[in-house]
Amino acid sequence: MKKTLLLLAGLLISSQALAETITQQSGWAGWNGSFKFSEHWGSLSDVQIRSGDNWADTQNLMFRPGLTYFINSRSNFTVGYLWNGTLNTPGHDLVEHRIWQQYIYTQQLGSVPLTHRLRLEQRFIEQASGGDRRFAQRLRYFARSVIPLGHPDGAFTRGPFIGLQNEIFFNVQHRDAVNGAFFDQNRAYLAGGYRLSKQIDLELGYLNQYINGRVNDTLNHVVQFALYTRF
């Protein structure tokens, strides 16, 4: 268990900034749902709402559906779409459309599962200055573990847990449409949660978002609430 905790703690180390860094505080809330309707097929749904700096107004609304193919009990592949609305921007609201593909693999580290997710996004970004949308591709690597508190017998189906995760983002095509750099951002997350049943988790935690900006970098301290459902 100690080796597992050390490995996961290493995932929470954020990248260091060389440019001037702006500090923000915000709140995110979301629902992540998965539904398996046959041995090999299922769906994903992800809905999020995010506030602006200092919890002022709503900055982002996101809806991300996807269709999943289950390769086996440990791995699956999903293709999906995302609608991302950035609100309260000067002039008018902005909308980004994305097509995305992801692969998930879950391994066991002793009694603790570690989930790896690799996601590729094709982004169609609306510009605040007007004109045509700009296209870019981004690659994201995500690792997450849920560590039960206590010593449940067999499968973990109910009780408190700790959630640890980290996600790193890279601009792999047309990076000038975003920040002009290969590294885009990093998100490190620590949460406490409660598993109500095999199908439902509630979670509240702190997310450290470091964004590599074109001019200034941003360090965003986020309080995040999440609901996870699995049917």
From TrEMBL:
Signal peptide residues are: 1-19
Question: What keywords appear on the UniProt entry?
Answer: Signal
Which InterPro entries does the entry mention?
Answer: DUF2490
> Record's Pfam families?
DUF2490 (PF10677)
The domain of life is Bacteria
Protein name per UniProt: DUF2490 domain-containing protein
Q: Which organism is it from?
A: Hydrocarboniphaga effusa AP103
